[in-house]
Amino acid sequence: NKSFDIEKEANQVKADIEKIREKLEQQKQIIEKIKPFDDLIAQERESAIKLSELEGKKEALQKIIQQASKKLENLDEEIQELDQEHSELVEEKSLYEYKDKHVSLKKELIEIDEKILSNKVSPEQANKLEEQFQELISKTQALKSKSESLTAICSEKEKRLADLKQKQTKTAELKQSIEKLQKRIEFLNQFKNALLIAQSSLRKELVQAVNEVMNSVWNALYPYDKWDSIRLDATEIDYTLQIRDADGNWLNVSGFASGGERMLACLALRIAFAKVLAPNLSMLILDEPTHNLDYAAISKLIEVIQEKLSDTLEQVFIVTHDEKLAEAGQNIIRIN
Fold it and tell me: What is the DSSP letter of 307?
């Protein structure tokens, strides 16, 4: 009977060894799958940095466009004023004709003086000529004053016209700059959208890899059949840790799992993230991992640490008050 029991136990041990080898092979395959995600994670970080830089550049360009738009509005108002002043100048242009009349009147005065000197005139004619002469002098002085005023106005208007033409040239240059800036903003928006799409794709692939590893770790850690699978459900606004019951329903860990089950779920999640983000992980530190775990769960945890984690990790450090877990260690340091 003892021989039969020993043989039976030996067969059982061989079967356990085969299962361990199969799971070890599965672990190695999973590790091979998650190696490419290092590059994806690096790309996601670079994409996030570039996206932040593009947002800053976009805000700066928008401020420049706003300032340029205000300058354009001011220039439009000045151009309208210039058009109005130009119309006034056209109306006042006729006043220059008085200058020619002034020259003509001078000639008439000279002719009158010559006639007076060459011909004898009566007192009445002399008075009449005197009146005409004084009238001509008054008109001449008025025309001269107005001509000087118009000359000053024209000079000022010409200066303003030159300034406005210069501003108009600058306005055209600003419009060209704005068009270039708008094209750059369109390009930046397209680049931003591409980065967002790439970021979303990278996140999906990362979550998928974490779920594959976490599900494998969960099957190794969880000693019961109540929950047969675990996953990290990712939405656009949140992440939820879920477990699946025997009927295939996914339920939130926080609302349906016991304290020990939540502990194991969180441990599986941390190990999964560590393996995905650091495929060459060689060290694991656990702080009170048996908190809220029952006897069976503690035994299963010890088995996993001794027989499975040791294949992929060089060292496991555990801080614990549980004597059973402490005795399972190879090197024990007690602190009183």
Answer: I
Query: Cβ distance 265 to 292 under 8 Å?
Result: no
Helix (H) or strand (E) holding 284: strand 283-287
Its pTM surpasses 0.85: no
**Separation of alpha carbons 42 and 32, rounded Å:** 18
pLDDT, tens digit (0-9, with 9 covering 90-100), for 168-190: 888 888 888 888 888 888 888 88
Token digits of residue 16: 């356990």
The dihedral built from the CA positions of residue 190, 192, 198 and 203, taken in this order, carries a sign that is negative
Take residue 207 and report the two structure tokens written for it. 């979550």
227 phi, psi to nearest 5 deg:
-120, 115
Do residues 193 and 230 share a domain? no
* Residue 83 in domain: yes
Total number of domains in the chain: 3
Classify strands 315-319 and 283-287 as parallel, antiparallel or unpaired.
Answer: parallel
CATH of residue 56 = 1.10.287
